[in-house]
């Protein structure tokens, strides 16, 4: 047997050393770095959603996140604040909103950024917009259906020219259509798109977050990983899967809309859980209950959130709010 292998190696002219094969000595330094600097490798921490840090540990470059939720559940609104939180901390962000026009997305983000209803505070618009414009935030100019080739080209340019670290695609269904051969069904088209985004995230070391609508299912049941539209490729390729859920039982007990973000996949360390969120229609922000751990029972999490109003602000937010209050007092 050994002689046969020797003949094959000689005949095929195999190199004596294959660069694609490594041993632990090649990995030791990287392993040591992750152990010693664990917090650094966890990624950027959320300030407004601290429970996400407990579950996901942080937001890391090079990962692919799939986000889903029922139609009209607030996916774009949540992702807007979710990405804004990271952007305020310096994570350079590119938004690809194919469903909502950019100026409307920016208006929503400005309310979330300032914590104010812009319509009720028109006199502060110039100040808020000046502060908001300083964020490392860009928008794709696409609206409606767009080809995968154009989107990938724009994403590549953004990473090279602007050092973008987080890209949001909202949503994937707008990229499925006439760009593919007629013989290719929607599932195959989606698989190709997902594969392209997975390679992009890895090759460019950029976090890509993709919104995918769920299948049409019984509205009385909670969404699951299998609810995500398409084949299993999307869920297999994803590093993280987040689902925006609406609590069914409390919907009848309270006039307040209680939702929770469920982390159904976490490739980094496998930790899963739920984060309760409560929506404020005035400033379009979601607040969380810091006192409730993700490993508590679902009923405990949601019942303890009734009549709770917690706003999580970082130093930049506090500075903005203080300045706005000073301006208001001056003008009254």
TrEMBL record:
Q: Which GO terms describe its molecular function?
A: 5'-3' DNA helicase activity; ATP binding; single-stranded DNA binding
Report the domain of life of the source organism: Eukaryota
For this entry, list what GO says about its biological process.
Answer: mitochondrial DNA replication
Q: Can you cite an annotated GO cellular component?
A: mitochondrion
In this protein, which residues make up the domain named SF4 helicase?
38-293
This chain's protein is named: SF4 helicase domain-containing protein
Q: Which organism is it from?
A: Brachionus calyciflorus
């Amino acid at each position: 047997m050994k002689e046969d292998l020797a003949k094959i190696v000689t005949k095929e002219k195999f190199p004596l050393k294959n660069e694609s094969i490594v041993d632990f000595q090649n990995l030791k330094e990287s392993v040591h770095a992750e152990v010693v600097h664990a917090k650094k490798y966890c990624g950027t921490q959320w300030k407004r959603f601290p429970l996400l840090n407990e579950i996901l540990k942080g937001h890391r470059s090079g990962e692919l996140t799939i986000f889903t939720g029922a139609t009209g559940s607030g996916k774009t609104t949540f992702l807007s604040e979710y990405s804004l939180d990271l952007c305020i901390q310096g994570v350079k962000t590119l938004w690809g909103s194919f469903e909502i026009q950019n100026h409307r997305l920016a208006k929503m983000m400005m309310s979330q950024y300032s914590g104010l209803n812009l319509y009720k505070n028109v006199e502060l618009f110039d100040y808020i917009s000046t502060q908001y414009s300083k964020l490392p935030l860009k928008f794709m100019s696409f609206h409606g259906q767009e080809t995968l080739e154009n989107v990938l080209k724009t994403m590549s340019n953004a990473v090279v020219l602007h050092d973008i670290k987080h890209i949001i695609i909202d949503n994937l269904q707008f990229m499925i259509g006439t760009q593919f051969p007629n013989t290719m069904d929607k599932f195959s088209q989606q698989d190709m798109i997902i594969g392209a985004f997975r390679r992009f995230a890895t090759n460019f070391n950029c976090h890509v977050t993709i919104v995918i609508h769920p299948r049409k299912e019984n509205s009385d049941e909670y969404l699951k990983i299998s609810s995500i539209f398409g084949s299993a490729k999307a869920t297999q390729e994803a590093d993280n899967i987040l689902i925006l859920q609406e609590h069914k039982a409390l919907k009848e007990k309270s006039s307040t809309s209680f939702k929770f973000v469920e982390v159904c996949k976490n490739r980094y360390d496998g930790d899963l859980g739920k984060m309760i969120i409560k929506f404020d229609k005035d400033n379009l922000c979601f607040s969380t209950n810091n006192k409730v751990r993700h490993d508590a029972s679902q009923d405990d999490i949601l019942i303890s959130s009734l009549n709770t109003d917690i706003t999580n602000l970082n130093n930049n937010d506090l500075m903005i709010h203080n300045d706005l209050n000073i301006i208001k007092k001056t003008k009254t």
